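Your task:
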Amino acid sequence: MDSLTLRQQEILGFIRVSSQKNGYWPSIREIQEHFGFKSTNAVAGHLLALERKGAISRVPGQARAYRILSDKKPSAPDHTLSVLEIPVYGNIAAGYPEGVESGHAIASLQIDVESAGLNRKSANFALRVRGDSMVDAGIHEGDTVILEVRTPRNGDIVAALIDGETTLKRYVQQSGQPPFLKAENVAYPSIYPTSELIIQGVATSVVRRL
């Protein structure tokens, strides 16, 4: 199977979860409403892409019927399916640091673990990006970034609490020097903590609405 985009992984995850819960696939209209697409044509385009990449196939002679190719039969509930529901905890500044967001989930993402390369055993969460300080790393305003709770490595993109405020930046740890945060946009300076730098999560992938 060809590699899937994060949006395709998210749609595949939603289809799997809906199939598990209801015993049948969601309608194109239900997929449209869940993801906020402007038309059903966008859903049809994603399903066609999933079919071309070998993730799903049509079931001959059945309306609105596809088969997920890792499943044994069309729309069959399978409790071993690797779908992960990730909480979205609000916004994070990809610009200058801002006040801490609420710790309560405001939404959730349903992601296919195998396609996204996520570690089910790790704590994962997501934040919506506000600002443009990470555009040169391919992270834009309005994107949703998925993060894993773990110790960062030099060069990781992280959600950080720096001197009481949160931001999304690249973590830089140079030999013999305290770590700092680097923007991926020349319009923004690097940020050096004066008292506190706590890494809340390491970015693993980005979801973008088209």
Observations:
- The helical segments are 6-22, 28-35, 40-52, 113-116.
